[in-house]
Amino acid sequence: MVFPRDLPGINNRIKGTLPGTLGVEIVELRDKALSARMSLRPDHLAPNGFLHAASVVGLADTACGLGSLTNLPEGGTGFTTIELKTNFLATARDGVLTCEARLVHGGRTTQVWDAEVRHKESDKTIAVFRCTQLILYMGEFDVSAQG
After folding, report:
1. Residue 144: HSE in the Cβ half-sphere, 13 Å Cα cutoff
2. Distance from chain centroid for Cα 56
């Protein structure tokens, strides 16, 4: 499966997946960087009425993952996340979250991405996120062999 490398194609591809369900939209695609946003809805909140951590991680992880897919090294066919970490600094209950993801390390076997999630209306940093991606090459990881 060839992954699209244009905004309309990427936004169309995420429909019907978790990022699509969350309402993630990719707004800018750059070399070694990607920008996304998500309008907050009541279902992004936890039962305590504050923003659910999984909503923030979903936005940041999507931005970094799609960034990885659009910046694979030559011969790379995909990736899998091998580590992620998030520090939460603030919260929001409504408005729009923005996310800026950037490639920190782009090697042949791994990529490291950083992302910052901000609340558009207050300009507060909601979270900082870092993930490490293991780059996959066709034939190296055969999912049909897994039980």
Report:
1. 2
2. 10
- Cα 109 from Cα 66, distance rounded (Å): 17
Amino acid letter, 58: G
Cα 107–Cα 60–Cα 89 angle in degrees, nearest 5: 115
Separation of first and last alpha carbons in the chain: 22
Residues in the chain: 147
Q: Which residues of the chain have pLDDT under 70?
A: 1, 139-147
pTM of the model: 0.92
Element (H, E) at 112: strand 110-119
Query: Which alpha helices (H) appear in 32-74, and where do they start and end?
Result: 53-69
99 and 65 Cβ atoms separated by less than 8 Å: no
Pairwise CA distance, residues 59 & 41, whole Å: 13
Which tens digit of pLDDT belongs to each residue from 66-98? 999 999 999 999 999 999 999 999 999 999 999
